[in-house]
């Protein structure tokens, strides 16, 4: 009785083992099919020139293809930024002044907000006579900044620059000073110095007939006899306690906000 039961158990175990092996053998087919299914499709492989990386989209400068293990996905930069093909491992989108869009002229539509003409970017505030402020837009929120005194925002470089180097800035109107003409047309001096008519501490350098504002600093004054800054007590008419008129020079502080579009 005991031997019969043992034999029966052995037969049952053998049948179970055979059934399990057959089942495992049959499941190998679907596993292989699954692996093949996850290989890059023809369309995906056409999107990706390499298995991994980010690549430009033909004709559009703010779009790119991100390829991971051969799978390509088209993506858009945040509006106002452009795709930089040279940013291999860094954030792939940058400001327009840093990106070459030759052959990729198209862009997504602008997404202006109450503050900004685009969701991201740097933008000049004011007209040709008020060049000293700019706005940094981040996700449609604008943050206003002032250039250092005497400088103007240059939208071509996103930097504060000499006003005469900024194409859309009227330097004479902005600095409220014009360089006097040279009497002798046969004798040209490229650089001339003039004390500000309103403030002993400030002076103008005229470079090729265009003014640039300078500041001697507190307690000093521009000495026209030596064309340089000097202690205020050494400059006639600028002895302490000299107080500059208000307002002085260019508009150092702009009041109010100006829409950019």
TrEMBL record:
Ranges of residues in domain Chitin-binding type-2: 45-103, 113-171, 176-240
Region of interest called Disordered, as start-end residue ranges on this chain: 240-261
GO molecular function: chitin binding
Keywords of this entry: Chitin-binding, Disulfide bond, Glycoprotein, Repeat, Signal
UniProt keyword annotation of Repeat present: yes
Pfam families, per database record: CBM_14 (PF01607)
SMART domains, sorted: ChtBD2 (SM00494)
PANTHER family: CHITIN BINDING PERITROPHIN-A, CHITIN-BINDING TYPE-2 DOMAIN-CONTAINING PROTEIN-RELATED
Protein name: Chitin-binding type-2 domain-containing protein
């Amino acid at each position: 009785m005991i031997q019969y039961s043992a034999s029966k158990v052995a037969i049952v175990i053998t049948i179970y083992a055979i059934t399990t092996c057959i089942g495992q053998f049959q499941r190998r087919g679907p596993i292989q099919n699954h692996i093949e299914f996850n290989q890059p499709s023809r369309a995906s492989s056409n999107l990706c020139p390499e298995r991994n990386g980010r690549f430009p989209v033909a004709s559009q400068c703010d779009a790119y293809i991100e390829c991971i293990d051969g799978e390509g996905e088209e993506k858009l930069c945040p509006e106002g930024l452009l795709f930089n093909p040279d940013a291999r491992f860094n954030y792939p989108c940058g400001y327009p002044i840093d990106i070459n869009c030759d052959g990729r002229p198209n862009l997504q539509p602008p997404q202006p907000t109450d503050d900004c003409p685009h969701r991201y970017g740097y933008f000049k505030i004011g007209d040709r006579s008020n060049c000293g402020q700019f706005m940094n837009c981040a996700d449609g929120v604008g943050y206003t900044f002032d250039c250092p005194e005497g400088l103007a925002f240059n939208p071509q470089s996103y930097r504060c620059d000499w006003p005469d180097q900024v194409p859309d800035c009227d330097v004479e109107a902005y600095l409220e000073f014009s360089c006097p003409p040279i009497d002798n047309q046969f004798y040209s001096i490229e650089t001339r110095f003039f004390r500000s008519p309103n403030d002993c501490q400030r002076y103008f350098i005229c470079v090729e007939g265009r003014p640039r504002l300078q500041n001697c600093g507190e307690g000093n004054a521009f000495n026209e006899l030596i064309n340089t800054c000097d202690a205020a007590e050494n400059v006639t008419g600028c002895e302490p306690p000299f107080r500059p008129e208000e307002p002085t020079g260019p508009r150092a502080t702009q009041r109010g906000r100006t829409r950019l579009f």
